[in-house]
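Hey,
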Amino acid sequence: MTDATAAAAAPAAMEVDAPPTVTPLEAAFATVAATNPDAAKELQTRFEHMVKTNDTLKAQVEQGQKDKQVDKEILTRELTHLQSFLSPETQALYNIDLGQLTHANPAMVTNAAHRLVAACNAEFMSRGAHPSAKRVRVAEPAAAAPAPVAAAPADVATSDLLRRALATQYGM
């Protein structure tokens, strides 16, 4: 073998022969396992439970990040759609910019969204603003007053009964 070949083979042999490094946690676990096997089993069970819980929480965080991204995309799409209704003059007046609506700072996005809604409100109100038509009074012919109807004898008797009942009740 040449020196170069031997030099190349030596580090490879060292890497294979070197014992794997032990982390402090693994060393502590080995110590507990050597002194108290029952406690080591309990410790291992709890540690496995912590790892499973950690993996579950990581998955939930990842799902939350995906949901957050979807919500951001929907919000951006809808705000862009609203912005398409605005005239350039209204956009300039309210300082509407798509970059502000997609900014990383939530306060800036909220402020920009409020201005966009106010601009849309102003734009839609101005589109619907028409001068009201002047009202003209139309003279209608006056209806003839109905002729007075003579009281029928039954009506007189009923009103007489009512007067007597009120007089009896209230001492009139």
